[in-house]
Amino acid sequence: MLNPYVNRKYLVSGIFVAFVLAYLIRLFYIQVIDDQYKFSAENNSQRRIIKYPPRGVIYDRNGLLMVQNEAAFDLMVIPRQVTPFDTIDFCKMLNVEVEDFRKMLKEATDYSGYRPSALVSQVSAETYAIMQEKMFKFPGFFFQSRTLRKYPRPVASHLLGYVGEVDEKIIEKNPYYKMGDYIGISGVEAAYEEYLRGKKGVSLYTVDVHNRIVGHFAEGKLDTIPELGNDIILGIDLELQEYGEKLMQNKIGSIVAIDPATGEILMLVNSPSYDPNLLVGRVRAKNYHKLLYTANKPLFNRAIMAKYPPGSTFKMANGLIALQEGLIQPTTTFGCSRGYHFGGIKVGCHAHASPLDLIHSIQNSCNAYYCNVFRKIIDNPKYKNTRKGFEVWRKYMLGFGFGRKLNSDQVHELEGNIPTPEYYDKYFGENRWKSLTIISLAIGQGEIGITPLQLANYGAIIGNRGWYYTPHVIHEIKGEKGIPVQFTRKNFTSIKPEYYEYMVQGMELAVLSGTARIASLDSIVVCAKTGTAQNPKKDHSVFLAFAPKDNPKISISVLVENGGFGATYAAPIASLCIEKYLTREVKRKDLEERMINANLLNASKEKPSNDAQD
Amino acid sequence: MTRKINILENIDWFTVSIYVVLAVMGWLNIYAVVYNEDHSSIFDFSQRYGAQFVWMIAAFAIAFVIMTVDSNAYSYFAYILYGVSMLLLISVLFFGKTVNAAKAWIEIGPLQLQPSELVKITTALALAKLLDNQHFKIHNLKNLFLMAVLIFLPVVIIVLQNDTGSAVVYAAFFLVLYREGLTPWALVLGFVSIILFFAALLTDKMDLVVSLTVFTYLVYFIINMRWKPFVLALGIFLVSLGLLYVTDWIAGTEFPFYYIYIAAIIVSSLTQLIIIYAKRIRNTSIIIFFFLITVGFTFTVDYGFNNVLESHQRDRINELLGLSYDPLGTGYNVNQSKIAIGSGGFWGKGYLNGTQTKYNFVPEQSTDFIFCTVGEEWGFVGSTVVLLLFLTLLVRIVFMAERQRSNFSRVYGYSVAAILFFHIAINVGMTLGLVPVIGIPLPFFSYGGSSLWSFTILLFIFIRLDSTRMEKLV
Q1: How close B358 gets to chain A, by Cα (Å)?
Q2: Do residue B27 and residue B172 come from a single domain?
Q3: Structure confidence by residue, pLDDT tens digits, A364-408
């Protein structure tokens, strides 16, 4: 039986023939007729030079230069084009060991004979000037210009971050990057990498037998022009940052200040710190290792990564939760007999009038008051059991930005810690813990860990009476419309604004005639709260403040490790920073001097303080 | 009744020779791409050409093994092979390795396999098995459904693997089904939709829809060759257009004319359909359906283009159509590829003398853009030889397929030809800037064991089937 469709083979074959014919015509056109694609045979030695645009420059909020660029040059090699040369002379000019040089040259040859690789990175402009004259003697070698970061003032190293060479992991993930490219690794450099880096360009040159560039290849038709990186303006106040770092010298700790109205971070001080110029260029890897093993970890970004118990600064949060849950009124009073006593448990307190109402409990930082408040929250009859009460408390705490990442543009930010019920289940056993078991949370001690950034943000929340913008260092990206949208949305806590007023009043009284008197300023109403974070060796000094009282312009958290009471070091340092920021001039020279000169690096070895609280 | 015959005598040595010549040419061209004087030995196994040599020898061994397997086995195990390969393909979704954004590879030790290559073969076998019946009715609903499942199941999974390029090749099976009796309208529909796709992107939609209308009425007239129904049809359309326009004007709704026009098309087509149904002239209804579908298609192209395709695929199509030009971005590969081929001239620059080739201007040159090397070093002459070799192979396979006595062998043979054709047409078209960049290999030429082996298996199963065609006397 003959297949009825057998004639269809002609159409199928016809399609095959038609395509091949069409392709042959096209081939004939581009290979023989059109000479747009032809290059003469002599043009067979090209050099592909990547043009790296300078990274965007970074300014502070007042237009002061924070990060700029400096020219440097990479010595490149195309191993196949290298002819025998005077190695010793060459190395002398470059200031490298002959042995090392040979090794590097072998590595480059192993990588590829044709493709250029960077032999010596970041040769200085001076060396470049000397060598450029003699390059004709060294075929196969050439320079490629790069820019390096330079920091006019050696501060703010953690928040700015640094730039380094990409590794294979990054290249695999993001095809934009090629071996030898730079990328922002931490801080602002990492967060705004895409804006700062600009766009690489490529130029193709024709090179003669003497390794000299004789002109653009293909009349520059194939070149791309590099696009400059966007400049960036940060919300940081560089002078304030510098001042903060000076105050914190010879101390361990951190200062974070935020403009509550915008969420912009005004200062982010870590101590000990390092000169950002150390992590630039050829010396970066060496210095990085050195810093990594330096005592007190100067590379550690305490402001966003360290967890500290917030001490008494935590009391406002507990008070607010109790108000919102309807468990206390502003007029509610609790007695205090030098502390809170229940069964065998005792939480000590200092001498003050008793009983106190809510506002005065903040003013005097009464521990007993907050033990009562905390127990009311956890044992709230509205919820069935301790666990449920605790979960409600924890949810409020997350609402204040504690125990979770705030998702600021400081990329390596950590969560801190608000313990979970599961944690206590594991530690004490299920149903084997009660409000009294975890009473230390009432006064901000125990398992709680808050980062200085979270603490400053909490200050902003209280100052704003219940809302905050996600903290960010960015102020403006030049050439872009606005900043990332997540920094322009208000976040609200689930607590009524009027409840915040009582806390603000308490904090105002603390400065006027309470535990935070040292932070008072003549012309500005400061609201503040001291704290002491219990520490096995010597307690940490904690302070939280915002000013002015209404429409605050700055919220600040200071943490001084082993600094003792909050009022001892953290409070004066915060106060000086507020004064500096709001009046641009510090009048209290004695206090300033005392703080700058204080050296607490060995304080942890002193005798532990007595257990009195502030 | 079957009779045993000497396999060696019945092997189609002509096809085998073309295969060997193409594979060796591919290997020599990979050598030219990677060539440098430091590693000048063509057998240096640390280099791609060394590896390709090993794979080529292994491919010959695979071909030999296939020739020793009983030819009935392929038909007997067709569905099982299809099932197993599908499982492998699905497993890639979970355990696969991602290369160039496509999660389509399995790593077994040093070997990297792309199961979608194997599935092409097993799909061809399964389809051949399905059609292996003298009384197979291709337009039977159940059969249409089964064929659609066989072909589209792997397509869906491959698209899920983000490997759209490999999925496109499955369109090859429509050519096979056409030969087996599928209505030519299916092919026409395929061609028309490709043309419409590009036309819709390139031209104003209004112009396109108007020209479609004019075209439809012309076809209508040519088919009927009578004035009366033509005038009637045109009249219905113009009246409904006028009515709708006036309605819009009176109601003050001010719809764009484009929408009014579309509405008129729908209204008049429906009216026409009713008349046709009443008068029982069914065949013209096909024209109207066709017309409605094309209009609907142009209407949805923009949506599909913007929402279904990935941005890099959009870029490649825009680049091809000249809607955007960025020779160092999206167009970089194609531009470099055209320069490499164009610079070859009539006679080529000579083996190992290609400068574009040597300096790695063309990315992926040993895999997807291998044809550039041919174009640059061997010129128009060499390119013509290669393309004619491929054409000879394709036509030869069609010729062989036609001499088969079983439907199974014929369908499989056509599948081989069609799959090879799609690969060649897309790959070469891409290097010439005629087809959007779709990363699929050139059969037997491109670097890579996985692709060389699967094309070898694909082809040699057919050579094996062909060698025993005399055994089956129906």
Answers
A1: 8
A2: yes
A3: 999 999 999 999 999 988 888 888 999 999 999 999 999 999 999
CB-nearest to A37 from B342, B346, B421 is B342
CB B36 within 8 A of CB A80: yes
Task: Tally the domains of chain B.
Answer: 2
> A95 is written with which tokens?
């200031």
Does the pLDDT at position A14 exceed 80? yes
Q: With a threshold of 0.95, does the pTM exceed it?
A: no
In terms of domains, do B353 and B453 share one?
yes
Owning domain of residue B276? 203-309
ipTM of the complex: 0.81
- Give the burial string for A559-595 (b: 16+ CB within 10 Å, else e): bbbbbbbbbbbbbbbbbbbbbbbbeeeeebeebbeeb
Query: Cβ separation of B37 and A113 shorter than 8 Å?
Result: yes
Asked if residue B346 and residue B441 are part of one domain, the reply reads: yes
Minimal Cα–Cα distance from B250 to chain A, Å? 45
Name all domains of chain A by residue range, CATH numbers in brackets.
46-78+107-234 (3.90.1310.10), 238-276+298-604 (3.40.710.10)
Could you read off the pLDDT of B61-116 as tens digits, one per residue? 999 999 988 888 999 999 999 999 999 899 888 877 776 666 777 776 666 778 88
CB-CB contact of A297 with A401 (8 Å): no
B38, B338, B429 ranked by CB distance to A37: nearest: B338
Among A1, A12, A80, the residue with its CB nearest the CB of B179 is A12
Among B391, B422, B424, B431, which would you mutate to test the A interface (most chain A Cβ atoms within 10 Å of its Cβ)?
A: B391
C-beta separation of A511 from A517 below 8 A: yes
DSSP B292-311: HHHHHHHHHHHHIIIIIS-H
Measured between CA atoms, the residue of chain A closest to residue B338 is: A37
User: Would you call B434 and A26 a contact, using CB atoms and an 8 Å cutoff?
Assistant: yes
Contact B342 A36 (CB under 8 A): yes
Residue B1 is assigned to a structural domain of this protein: no
